[in-house]
Specification:
The chain is mainly α. It has helices spanning 2-23, 31-37, 40-54, 68-83, 86-101.
Amino acid sequence: MYTLMIVGMALITVFIKAAIFMLGDRAAFPIWLKEALAFVPVTVLTAIIVPMVLAPHGKGLELTWRNPQLIAAIAAVVVCATTRRQLLTIMVGLAVFFAWQFGVLGK
């Protein structure tokens, strides 16, 4: 049953992408749809990252200073908000995470 659902979703996805690719510029989307689709990447990334940060072990929220994902995410948000530099944000987030994870800062 699951295999059939996965194959069906894959076929639908391929069909939609192929249709848009073949139609090219003839497929015109309304402005409101284009504006709404601009938010899809941010929404998907948020849906993936937030549960990993707030409940890294999947057993409820871990809103403590012992959660390295949460501490690193807070550090990354602060760096991003103050500098707007993506590479620096990633580097600081990773450095804080690993330092917290392996006990240099967190224990």
